[in-house]
Fold:
Amino acid sequence: MLLNDCPLDRGEHCLGPIVSKRARSIDLTQVSEWQEGELRRFQDYLVAEEPLEIRIGGKPVTVTMRTPGQDRELAAGFLFTEGLIQRREQIVSLSNGTADDSASAGNLVDVELTGADLDRERMQRNFFAASSCGICGKASIDAIRVRGIAPPNPDFRFDPQLLCALPEKLRAAQTIFGRTGGLHAAGLFNLQGELIVLREDVGRHNAVDKVVGWALLKGHLPLSECVLMVSGRGGFEIIQKALVAGIPLLASVSAPSGLAVQLARELGLTLVGFLRGRRFLIYSREDRLTVASAPNVPGR
Structure:
């Protein structure tokens, strides 16, 4: 999104360094645009991306690349959806901690816990494998089974007409995306299709963790009467986090992965994909959407 033309001084390139203010979600940089044979230079917005280190009791647990903002919600949501804590009362405090160097200031959340049984060696193995995509589908599903995650609310029902309106409502509330065009969103909606909370982040799983962290810290879990709408695809990690939060219906504008569909069907989550305009696909538990049953039609 254009701000102002960048003056050229004696023919020099005006591609300067990125200007960033700590803990801000948006950066500003100078770019060149080529259009129909003409080149012009101006300042443009970029979504910020910085590493966030999450520590427990002063000891590092994981580092995630995120868009600064709602870092405590992100840390709380991450710990909850990854199974390191099971309830809000286990969090004694969430603080920005003390970084070892000035460059890391503002990119650290230190969490004090009580009543949490932490196997740090297992945590480090799992988080390293997950970040490097080094775990197979069977191991992923088995890990979810071991955690004993309960199926979401079987009595939840949602109007398909309301569902079709959610993508536009999500997009309209994405203030950072509107300026940068470069990040994901997760929005929580109630039974009336009203937006409860929205979070944006460069990582789609971070956006979901921020929403879940918000609900955890506010005491709103489980989210058994809510719909989660995400701007990206419905991948395995997103399905897992929605299930942990007790969300019965997850919708996305894109396609889910095969492993995500398998997990949704096994644990009873209603999974919707390709939600665009007045059309969507239901991959599991269509009974939660009050639609008339239709015969199976091979192909499309």
